[in-house]
Every structure is written in C-alpha cells, then in structure tokens.
C-alpha cells in the first residue's frame, strides 16, 4: 500500500513538472523586446564606448538604428547600465518634444548625428540578439563623442554652457 501511495505521489509530481519542461520559442517574440544601452568605458578624450541595440527589417537598418539610439541615450537619458554612470546632456523635461524641429533633422537618415558616433576605431562586434519574421534586433559597439556633441548642442542654443 505504501509503495502504491509513493508511486501515485511521484506521478502527480511528474504531471505538474512536465508542462514546464517544454521549450519556448524565444526568437519569435524576443525581437520585440528593447535592450538598454550599456556603457563599456569612458575615454580620456571625453568620448564613451557603448553597446547599443537597434531594431530593423535587416542587419544594416538595425545597426543604423542602434547608432541613433546610442546618441539619443547620451543626450536625453544618460547611460545607467555598465561600467559608468553618466548623466544626460539635456536635463530639461520633455526636451525632445520641445526641440522636435531640431532633433527630427538631427536624427534623420544620414543626419548630423553621424558626426558624433563612430565604429571605425572599435572592433565592431555585432551579433543578433533576437530575430523574428519581420524584424531583427542587433547590438553594436560604438564610440559616442560626448564632448563634441555637448559643444554642438551649446552652439545651437539647445543647452547652456
């Protein structure tokens, strides 16, 4: 009788555990998740080395979006993840909406933001984080010229010195 009860208990436990053992298909939905920009280091010239993420229909589109995201995070959000804790260049609440006319041109495809982000001197480590049928999420290591970007925003009267 005791063996039968132990066998019955074991079957109940297995019945509850087995449904959680099935594999889930992460790649189909994970490409819609946002990943945070991470600071890999601050250079002595005032630039920051970041790992940024971008979404796009293909690799090139996602990598370009990642560069825009890196510059946008430096300007508006600051970089809280990684080896450094860097504050944003603009502290003003809703600055992106207030200066929308300026930043729409600045972040346009082929816009001025490209002058302040570089992957030429870095080992470009792009890798797929997640892929779905319609979009891909890629990470890229870039260097954002934070001091030059700050000077530009001062020159264009977006922030005060």
Produce a short descriptive summary.
The protein has 161 residues and is of the alpha+beta class. Helix content is 37%, strand content 20%.
Task: Tell me the total number of β-strands.
Answer: 6
Largest sheet: 6 strands, mixed
Percent helix range: 25-40%
Q: Which stretches are low in confidence, meaning pLDDT under 50 for 5 or more residues running?
A: 20-28
Structure class: alpha+beta
Shape field: elongated
Notes on the protein architecture:
This protein is an alpha+beta fold and 161 residues long. It has one domain. The chain contains six helices and six strands; from the N terminus they run H-H-E-E-H-E-H-H-E-E-E-H. Strands 1, 2, 3, 4, 5 and 6 form a six-stranded mixed beta sheet that branches. A hairpin with a 5-residue loop joins strand 1 and strand 2. About 6% of the residues have low confidence.
Topology:
Layout: H1 2-17, H2 27-30, E1 38-42, E2 48-56, H3 59-77, E3 81-82, H4 95-98, H5 100-106, E4 117-118, E5 127-131, E6 136-144, H6 146-155
Parallel strand pairs: 1-3
Antiparallel strand pairs: 1-2, 2-6, 4-6, 5-6
């Amino acid at each position: 009788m005791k063996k039968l009860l132990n066998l019955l208990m074991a079957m109940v436990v297995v019945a509850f555990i087995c449904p959680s053992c099935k594999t889930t298909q992460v790649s189909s939905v994970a490409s819609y998740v946002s990943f945070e920009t991470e600071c890999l280091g601050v250079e002595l010239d005032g630039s920051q080395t970041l790992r940024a993420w971008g979404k796009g229909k293909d690799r090139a589109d996602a990598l370009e979006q990642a560069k825009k995201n890196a510059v946008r995070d430096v300007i508006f959000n600051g970089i809280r993840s990684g080896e450094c804790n860097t504050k944003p260049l603009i502290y003003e609440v809703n600055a992106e909406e207030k200066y929308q006319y300026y930043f729409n041109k600045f972040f346009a495809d082929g816009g001025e933001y490209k002058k302040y982000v570089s992957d030429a001197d870095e080992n470009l480590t792009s890798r797929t984080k997640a892929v779905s049928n319609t979009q891909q999420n890629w990470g890229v290591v870039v260097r954002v010229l934070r001091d030059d970007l700050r000077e530009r925003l001062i020159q264009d009267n977006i922030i005060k010195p």
